[in-house]
Structures are given as C-alpha cells and as structure tokens.
Design goal:
- The chain contains 15 helices and 17 strands.
- With 483 residues, it is of the alpha+beta class.
- The termini are far apart.
C-alpha cells in the first residue's frame, strides 16, 4: 500500500524559555553563554534545605501567551513535582504543573497557503515549569559533564491537540507560535541557544479512519526544519512497520538530524510514571482577575492577523506580507508609510524589502539606527511614481536619505537626478541616436523589434541617465514607424 493511503497525525509540545531577568525560583541571572556552572545557586541546583520563590513575571508572561492563544486563564492553580531521574536534573524532580495548568483550551489559526486559507489548531494547555541543566558530551574526554546554568530557567510548555496533519502543518504551527512569542516579547526564540524547542508526537492511520493509533514521541527537536524531517521520517517508519505486519509501540525516540534517522531511547512514560504530586514548598498561585484583564489589554495585534490584513487590505502578496510581519520594526515602518496615503503600498513594501533591507544587512544596522523615516521614503517613491526620477536614480537617493539628514528632493537636486521629460529635447536626442545607429534601425524594420531596448539604452546614455525611459521608448517607436 502506498504512503499516500495513510494520514499522518501530529501533536507538538513546544518548550519556550522566557526572557525574564532572573530564573523562575531563585535570583540567579537568566542568561545564555555564561561560563559553565557560574549562574547557579543552592536553590536551582536543589541543595537540601533550600526553598524556591516563584518569579511573578513568569506567571505574567504565561498569561499573556494564554490570551494570545485564546485560552481560559485559571486565576487559581498550583505547581506540581514531576519525578524522574536524569543526570542534568539535580533534584531528581522538576517543578511543573500537572492537572491544573495556568492556561488551557485555546487555539492557533495557522495559515496554510499563499491565498491565506487558515486552519484552527487546538491548544490543550500552557503551563509553567523550570528547565533542566545541560549535558556536555566531550570529544577530548570520555563520558559527559553537567552544566547547571540552565537549571531553573523559566519555561512555558505549549501543548497542541493532535489536530496537525503532516509536517507542513506542523511547520506552519511552529512558525506561528514563534512569531507570537516574539511579538509578545516574552522569549527571544533563539533556536541555536535552545530558547525554543519541541517534542514531536507522531502516529499514522488509514485515510478515512477516525480512530487514533499508537503515537511515538521524539524529544527535544531543536529546529523547525529538523521537526519537518523528523515527522516525515517517523511517519514513513511507522507505515513500513504496519505494512510489514508489525505493531507500533508507545515509545520515546531520539531524532538524529545529522544522520536523518531516529533511534529508540525508552518506552514512553505515562503520567503515573512521573508520580506527580502538589509541590509542598510553593503556595497556590492566585492571580487577581483585574491583573489578568490588564495583561489581556496589553496584547498587540498578533502576527497572523497582521499578515492576513496586509494581504487583504494592503494588497500585498503572501511572501512580502510574511517578510514584513517577521520583522516588527519593518512592519511598523510600513504601516506608518502606508498611512500617509501618497504612494502605493506595494512600492513601499518593495523598497523596504529590497534596497533598504540590503543596505541594513550590509552595514549590520536596524531601521532605528538610520536616518530613514516613512516620510522620506514616501517622498522618494512619489518622485519615482510621478516620473521625476527613475528607479535607478532611486537606488542612489535611498542610500543618501538613509544615512544623512537630506530629503529625497534635496538629493535629487544636488545630484541632478531629475528625468528629462521635455518631449522636444528628448525627440532631438532620439533622432540623433537613430541617425547614428543605421544598422539597428534596419534590423528593427526587418522585424527584430528587440533592438528597441538597445536604442532606448543609447538614448539614456546620451542623456546621462536623465531621460525618461518610458517616454523615450514611446517616442522611438513612433519615429521608427515614420521612417
């Protein structure tokens, strides 16, 4: 039976490190890249006799994410001990949340294609928990060492319903979650630093079937492209097992992205294996409803909503809209320029994503670090749309207005960049070019109309780049037909 006869069911557990100043239960600095075992204390390393204290900012950040995903927020909830042994978990338990998470029953509308079609994916829960340490596997020594700097770094875990079908929808969901985290400014989402990672649950079933089959989990996949490859690999593995008469077992596997395969780690634990019980060293979490409402009101327009608005209201294609949404500075700049209502939104987008982005990349700058304003960019685009300067001249103008206080008009005048649209002056120039290029004229009359571009180029050279190419093309066509 072909792989196309099966449906791939995916559920994701996204773990996002929060960008609070300190850790979740102690005052240790929450930062990446410090010297090994320097950002840790008796509390986050689980020394006997120490007591944790909850960082309130972690609760605020989790509630904000809950609002963004349309969750029910529990004003009263608790924390629980999740018991398991691993070398990077010094207490042999993790403080997490079990039966009463801070947020639950939400959703995320993912964008499926460039036409803006969406699909609603259920979000089971969002809960807070502490991160574990990190194992360092040596190349120059045998065994592994443990860095406890990451112990106690605050996490939110976002658990989806098994509503995703295949790796494409999973990638769209992950990108949506990442964008929201960044828009809320609660996680830096630096995947290379482990700030956001996910566990992937995969099962397969025959198309038309309504029952879920046994799922397999893959732990700590640390890139979206890796998640896509892991899902596709595991789906094919399960189908091969089923087609050969085998059985799928509930288990945890490790994805090896370099090798492109997964390997068995252990049989999958159920909740009872973790022996959850209420955390005795922390009081019940009680959040004032007024505070919950204040946090809801602080939520900005979310990225997927903004993307669809750019497509529907501003007429931008999906690709352009998505690039703008991914960078909040550029999105804010675009909106301010669009609000001026003087030039086309597509032209603003083209310049922002084209030459402006290129110059920012070359000089390693952000928009805020330049002299460019929406008003200056719109003024330059208006000069192009009115035919006063060419697109080529615009490339010169934009670089100057980005890094000096000059306006577009001042740059155009100082550099003599205005196009010549005076028909009498251009006609004299066009006649002179035709007279000096008799061979090209004969080729045109012989049916090789593509030489018209060459003749326009010769006119532009004669005008030192100031001739209006559209006017010149029309004029040359008329003069050639008259000859």
């Amino acid at each position: 039976m072909a792989y196309e006869d099966y449906e791939v069911i995916v559920g994701l557990e996204v773990h996002a490190e929060l960008n609070t100043d300190s850790k979740i239960y102690c005052s240790c600095k929450n930062s990446f890249g410090a010297e090994v075992n320097t950002n840790c204390c008796p509390v986050c390393t689980g020394m006997p006799g120490t007591l944790p204290t909850l960082n309130e900012k972690v609760v605020d950040y989790a509630i904000k994410m809950g609002h963004a995903l349309g969750c029910t927020i529990h004003n009263v909830c608790k924390q629980d001990r999740k018991n398991y042994f691993y070398p990077d978990l010094p207490k042999a338990y993790q403080i997490s949340q079990y039966d009463i998470p801070l947020c639950e029953h939400g959703h995320l509308d993912i964008i499926l294609d460039e036409e803006g079609h969406t699909k609603r994916i259920g979000v089971t829960r969002i809960h807070i928990e502490e991160d574990a340490g990190k194992l360092i596997h040596g190349d120059s020594f045998q065994g592994s060492l443990v860095d406890f700097n990451r112990c106690g770094v605050p996490l939110i875990e976002i658990v989806s319903e098994p509503d995703l079908r295949g790796s494409g929808e999973a990638k769209a969901y992950l990108e949506g979650i990442k964008s929201i985290l960044q828009y809320l400014d609660i996680s830096d989402c630096k995947m290379q630093e482990g700030s956001i990672r996910c566990d992937v649950n995969v099962s397969v079933r025959k198309k038309g079937s309504a029952e879920f089959n046994t799922r397999v989990e893959m732990k700590n996949v640390n890139s979206f492209s890796g998640a896509v490859r892991a899902i596709d690999y595991e789906a094919h593995r399960q189908i091969d097992v089923l087609e050969s008469g085998g059985e799928i077992y509930q288990e945890t596997r490790r994805w090896d992205d370099a090798a492109g395969v997964n390997v068995l780690l252990r049989s999958k634990e159920d909740a009872q294996d973790y022996r959850y019980f209420p955390e005795p060293d922390l009081p019940t979490i009680v959040v004032d409803p007024q505070r919950v409402e204040q946090l809801r009101q602080s939520i900005p327009e979310l990225p997927n909503h903004r993307l669809l608005r750019y497509m529907k209201e501003n007429g931008l294609p999906y690709f352009d809209a998505n690039l703008l949404v991914e960078n909040q500075d550029k999105a804010a700049f675009f909106e301010a320029a669009s609000a001026l209502g003087k030039v086309s939104d597509k032209a603003v987008s083209n310049w922002l994503l084209g030459d402006v982005s290129r110059l920012l990349y070359e000089k390693n700058l952000t928009l805020a670090e330049t002299r460019l304003t929406p008003e200056k960019l719109v003024e330059m685009i208006a000069l192009i749309e009115s035919g006063e300067i060419s697109n080529t001249a615009g490339k010169t103008v934009v670089e100057e207005i980005m890094f000096t206080d000059a306006t577009a008009a001042q740059v155009v005048d100082a550099r003599g960049l205005r196009q010549i649209s005076d028909t009498s002056a251009l006609e004299a120039m066009a006649r002179q070019v035709l007279a000096g290029n008799a061979k090209a004229v004969e080729q045109y009359k012989g049916g090789k109309t593509n030489v018209l571009g060459f003749l326009v180029g010769q006119c532009m050279r004669a005008s030192k780049g100031q001739g209006n190419p559209a006017v010149l093309k029309e004029m040359l066509t008329r003069l050639l037909e008259e000859m």
